[in-house]
C-alpha cells in the first residue's frame, strides 16, 4: 500500500481521505485533488494488492482488512482526525472505519459515499458475476475492456474513446494477480451494513451521492442506505453513471466541497 499526502497551503487545514472503489488506485481521485486541496490536506492511497507486482492477498479477504490497513497508515502519519470520502467499495471501507473510533482513538469528521450501498443489489451481483466470468474464462484484457461499460455513460465513452483506450492499455500493463482481483470482488459483494455500523455512524455527518444512470449500482441502493442512516443527506444526479467523479467532475466536486465546508 502507498499513501500520498497532497498538502494544502494552510498548515492547519483539516485532512480529507479519499478511498477508491474496486480498482483500488489513488489516481482515481486525480480530478478531485486540486479542488479539495484549496481547503484540505488531501490523502489518497493505493489499496493493497492492486498492482502487477503486488503480493497475493490473504484468503479470506474482506472490507475489515481494507479498513484496518488504511487506518494503520493514517495513524502512522499521526493523522487521527479526518473526513473520509469513498467511492462504492471505498464507502464500505468508510463505514467499517467508523466502528473503530473508540478503540483506536481517532475522529471521523464526516463520511461521503458515492454510489455505495448497504446491501448488495441482485443486479449489481449479476454485473459482478459477468465480470468474474470474463476474467476467469477470457482473461484480463476482456475484463479491462468491458469495465467502461459498467462505469461510464454511453455518450461519454463515444466521445472519450481514445484516452479511455490509452488508460485501459496502461491498466493492462499493471494488472494485478487474478487471485487478488477475485478476492476483492468477493469482499465488495460480502459487505453488508449492520447495526454496529449504524450505531457507530449515528453522530457522523453523512453525504450520499448517487447517479440515476448508474448501470452498475442502481441509485435506489443509495436511497435505501439513506433510510438506514436517516440523518444522512442524499444528492441525486441525473447523469454521470458509476464513475461520475470522472464524467461529471465539476458538479461532483462542488457537491463534495459544499458538504465538507458547510456549518
From TrEMBL:
Domain (AB hydrolase-1): residue spans on this chain: 16-244
An example molecular function term from Gene Ontology annotations: monoacylglycerol lipase activity
Reactions catalysed, as given in the entry: carbamate + 2 H(+) = NH4(+) + CO2
Entry's EC annotation: 3.5.1.-
InterPro entries: AB_hydrolase_1, AB_hydrolase_fold, AB_hydrolase_sf, Pyrimidine_utilisation_RutD
One BP annotation, GO: uracil catabolic process
Cellular component aspect of the GO annotation: membrane
Keyword entries, A-Z: Hydrolase
Highest taxon in the source lineage: Bacteria
Family recorded in the similarity comment: Belongs to the AB hydrolase superfamily. Hydrolase RutD family.
PANTHER family named in the record: HYDROLASE, PUTATIVE (AFU_ORTHOLOGUE AFUA_2G14860)-RELATED, MONOACYLGLYCEROL LIPASE
Entry-linked NCBIfam families: RutD (TIGR03611)
UniProt function note: Involved in pyrimidine catabolism. May facilitate the hydrolysis of carbamate, a reaction that can also occur spontaneously.
The protein, known as: Putative carbamate hydrolase RutD
Organism: Acinetobacter lwoffii
Gene name linked to the record: rutD
